[in-house]
Design a protein that fits this description.
By secondary structure, the protein is an alpha+beta fold. Helix 14 (about 450-460) packs antiparallel against helix 16. It is globular, with a radius of gyration of 25 Å.
Length: about 525
């Protein structure tokens, strides 16, 4: 494969798109309704589909025509009113539900084999004795190796009813043996809280990747554990969190705000305004709070950040958030598909709408990140465009601005120099996980029994893994100049080794030590004017 240079906007656009898909899931339950009523305009579509099915000269998949029609209609509305086909619905619902029934393994296709990166701790496969590095050859009698199976086929073979048994045929490379093991399928959590660790002796850190059904409960458990560990201040990391359920962001805000403080307002087409207030049941109403945001923090993330900022409850750190102030409701269409339709706008406690304009269409709307990059906003607070006509006041009288996202109280630029961000994004991507797995696959015994600190020393004290990773990227068509990032690359590699060999906690404890936003909280510097 010929190596090719990958440019930053392409990589970031991909990451941003994924985040915004999550952001469009901010919804409330809705009663099930039919899509088409009896009006003449609406029945016209039904008649056309009937004519095509009965009279058109060639065979046509009318389902696909309807899908195109629905998407065309929604494109005329706003960028966050979206259609979810019945084939996509299962995956979407699973992601937001917070768990699924399966065998509980983190895997990927390596040389046409299902390679286990790591079983979910305490999950069905872990209990059955599956180990990192194992290859799953058969699920029952279904052959999984030597075939280029799509992920949906793999998932369908490994998932099943809760309590059902699946016989796996496994090859264990470390012993060069093949054996069968029975795994009882069970509920496997999909974590929305990635980490809860101590950043220093008094500062707790919680990373939220989305706002799903279980997020508030996960967060509460994490917060309680950090309080017991001695945390008197908390960092909430919402970077790259594209959103989710509004009510879960509200529940988390309630943990920090006093009884009666306004969290969020929503206003619908009929100008009905609903206000949500904090209760007296918050478990961290004292102590400092810091919220980390960036250009990919959207919707529910912005609701939480806005509530903390407008009530002067904490400090917002990072870069201007995405700017999504619309609320969607999910409406089933009767065939397994659904529409997430924008039904309201939300406003922060000071009255701000942080929704940025989509008057120039969806493409321009979603390409806003590139404009921020080119304008220099991601590197200098002075480059942030502030709407002087949209001034609002916090509870204590500080000026905040509406339109186009939450502007942080403390600005932290993108890491490194112009053009260096792509390296950081690669180091936080799945390709690092695959590289580390492949390294362990050939030398796992070198790391057996070692602590996280020993693993870190083994990886960072030599250029061996750094050079191997550079070659791995080139082999996969990704060419980067890693030279001036040597120490950072080593640190991320060591952290990933620790994650696969020890725990997610070990990963974050290594990464956070050199995180610029974390540093700005732990060792704050005077801020220049915005």
């Amino acid at each position: 494969m010929k190596p090719k240079r990958i440019y930053l906007p392409i990589i970031i656009a991909t990451a941003l798109a994924l985040g915004l898909i999550m952001g469009s899931f901010l919804n409330f339950p809705a009663p099930q309704r039919g899509l088409i009523s009896g009006s003449s305009h609406k029945s016209k579509l039904n008649k056309l589909i009937d004519f095509i099915e009965s009279e058109y000269v060639d065979e046509v998949d009318t389902d696909s025509i309807v899908d195109l029609t629905v998407n065309s209609i929604l494109e005329k509305l706003d960028p966050h009113s979206v259609y979810i086909s019945k084939t996509e619905m299962g995956e979407v619902e699973q992601s937001m539900k917070g768990d699924f029934v399966g065998i509980g393994v983190n895997f990927y296709m390596y040389k046409d084999s299902v390679a286990v990166i790591k079983p979910v701790p305490g999950g069905p496969s872990d209990r059955a004795g599956i180990k990192p590095g194992d290859r799953i050859l058969y699920a029952g009698n279904y052959k999984l190796f030597g075939r280029k199976l799509p992920n949906d086929t793999l998932f369908s073979k490994l998932k099943g009813a809760e309590g059902s048994q699946l016989t796996l045929t496994v090859f264990r490379k470390s012993t060069n043996k093949q054996f069968k093991v029975n795994v009882t399928r069970d509920v496997v959590p999909l974590k929305s809280v990635d980490a809860a660790v101590m950043a220093d002796k008094a500062m707790g850190y919680i990373k939220i990747n989305r706002f799903a059904e279980t997020t508030a409960d996960e967060f509460r458990i994490a917060l309680e554990s950090l309080k017991k560990a001695g945390a008197t201040s908390i960092i909430i990391d919402l970077r790259d969190n594209g959103g989710g359920y509004l009510e879960k962001a509200v529940e988390i805000a309630d943990e920090f705000l006093r009884d009666g403080q306004l969290i969020v307002k929503t206003r619908n087409k009929k100008n009905r305004e609903d206000k949500t207030f904090a209760t007296a049941e918050g478990i961290f109403e004292e102590g400092k709070v810091y919220v980390l945001i960036n250009e990919n923090s959207a919707s529910a993330s912005e609701i939480l950040a806005g509530a903390i900022q407008d009530n002067d409850r904490g400090v917002i750190v990072g870069r201007r958030s995405f700017g999504k102030g619309l609320v969607q409701r999910e409406m089933k269409l009767g065939d397994g598909s659904a529409v997430r339709l924008t039904v309201a706008r939300y406003y922060t406690p000071s009255g701000r709408s942080i929704q940025r304009s989509y008057a120039n269409g969806g493409e321009a709307y979603f390409n806003d990140f590139e404009k921020r990059f080119e304008s220099g906003e991601l590197y200098a607070a002075d480059s942030i465009k502030i709407a002087d006509t949209l001034k609002f006041k916090t509870v204590k009288g500080r000026t905040v601005y509406g339109g186009g996202g939450i502007i942080p109280d403390v600005f932290v630029p993108l890491d490194g120099h112009h053009g260096d961000e792509a390296v950081l994004m690669v180091m936080q991507s799945g390709i690092v996980s695959y590289f580390v797995f492949e390294q362990l696959d050939s030398e796992r015994k070198l790391f057996e029994g070692k602590t996280a600190a020993q693993i870190q020393n083994q990886v960072t004290s030599t250029d061996k893994y750094y050079k191997a990773f550079d070659a791995y990227l080139a082999k996969n068509g990704l060419v980067f100049r890693l030279g001036r990032h040597r120490d950072k690359v080593k640190r991320y590699l060591a952290a990933e080794f620790a994650r696969q060999l020890v725990s997610d906690k070990a990963y974050y404890e290594m990464i956070l030590k050199e995180d610029n936003m974390i540093k700005s909280v732990l060792s704050p510097k005077p801020q220049k004017g915005k």
